[in-house]
Amino acid sequence: MSTIKQTRWLTRDEKQCWVVFVQLLTVALSRLESQMQADSGISHYEYGVMARLSEAPRRTVVLSQLADMSNGSLSRLSHAMRRLERHDWVRRSPCASDGRLTEATLTDAGMAKVTESAPGHVRMVRSLVFDALTPEQSAQLRDISLAILNHDRSKTAD
Amino acid sequence: MSTIKQTRWLTRDEKQCWVVFVQLLTVALSRLESQMQADSGISHYEYGVMARLSEAPRRTVVLSQLADMSNGSLSRLSHAMRRLERHDWVRRSPCASDGRLTEATLTDAGMAKVTESAPGHVRMVRSLVFDALTPEQSAQLRDISLAILNHDRSKTAD
DNA sequence: AAGAATAACTTGAACAGTCAAGTGATTGGA
DNA sequence: TCCAATCACTTGACTGTTCAAGTTATTCTT
């Protein structure tokens, strides 16, 4: 008996679903990116980083945690922090209790930037997603997203 | 009366949905990218371009159409074509009927590359999405994707 | 039948993301 | 207790994407 499994291709229904979903992935990210860049001059990722900080106690989060919350690598965050620091929107400081850790803090100027950028962002999110869906579909989308993410995590878990 | 509309923020349910959906966007694209890069040494976008060509009559598509089918700008495609041409996976040729158009054709080597890359790609798609969802959810995801994309197109339409 | 406007690309500069290597700080064995 | 392994982060080189500008071809307009 052979150990080489033959590929189980997608069914017609699955392929149909996949094609539109992939398109959704690219279109959604591209719309978010364009809106943020055009209206606020920052990337959607940078907005996300500052938004996470704005919601945190003392507007402060350890970098490695912040990287997770922002759905990106630590390296990506490190580069982004350098850019945000140049605008004085964030500050880095070493953590007292553990010398390996660095804390990121959102400055007042950074908070102001988030506050002024949020309305345009929310408008885009609403007009892109929630204006297009029924409340039932929003709930389905949440469940579907969670199902995929949880299933992915259980596979990736070492 | 003021012309400044105050922002309609997201409800708790909407925000909950949005957070997981954004995470899904990034995780899904990142998994697709990693798999294709690791197993075949090409980007997910480049695979998509060649896959579209492989399904087309005469394995040939006009560049501007190919750019649309691949969910990217013409500029992005142009740069990608240069890379793919270096491997002799695709060929460019001027269109006889309209001098502005350029046709892209998948070579035999390109077809072989797609054929050898497809199984790993399909395995990733299946394990990421369809193994995590019920058939009902797959159908819902298709409908949701279409709803968002159609609603977006109707807005964007000039 | 020109000339203007549009369309289909190409190109190069600027910039963001990834990957691999490097630096300190801390933990965990032997 | 000390040395190795691990962790948290930084940095620089490389590569891909975007944006604006340029080129050539075609289609309108009058």
Short descriptors:
6 helices; DNA-binding; 158 residues; 67% helix; homodimer; mainly alpha; Arc Repressor Mutant, subunit A
Number of domains of chain A: 1
Contiguous low-pLDDT stretches of chain A (5 residues minimum) are none
Oligomer: homodimer
Shape of chain A: globular
CATH architecture of chain A: Orthogonal Bundle
Describe this structure in words.
Two copies of one chain form a homodimer. By secondary structure, chain A is mainly alpha-helical. Chain A has a single domain, classed as Arc Repressor Mutant, subunit A (Orthogonal Bundle), CATH 1.10.10. Chain A is 67% helix and 8% strand. Chain A has six helices and three strands; from the N terminus they run ααβααββαα. Chain A has helices at residues 12-40, 44-55, 63-69, 74-86, 108-130, 135-156; strands spanning 60-62, 90-94, 102-106. The first copy, chain A, has a three-stranded antiparallel sheet with strand order 1-3-2. In chain A, α2 (44-55) crosses α5 and α3 (63-69) crosses α4. At the A-B interface, α1, α5 and α6 of A face α1, α5 and α6 of B. The structure holds a DNA duplex (30 and 30 nucleotides).
What's this model, at a glance?
Chain A is mainly alpha-helical and 158 residues long.
Q: How do the strands and helices of this protein lay out in sequence?
A:
The structure is a homodimer of 158-residue chains.
Chain A: H1 12-40, H2 44-55, E1 60-62, H3 63-69, H4 74-86, E2 90-94, E3 102-106, H5 108-130, H6 135-156
Antiparallel strand pairs in A: 1-3, 2-3
The first copy, chain A, binds a DNA duplex (30 and 30 nucleotides) through residues 43, 45, 62-64, 72-80, 82-83, 98-102.
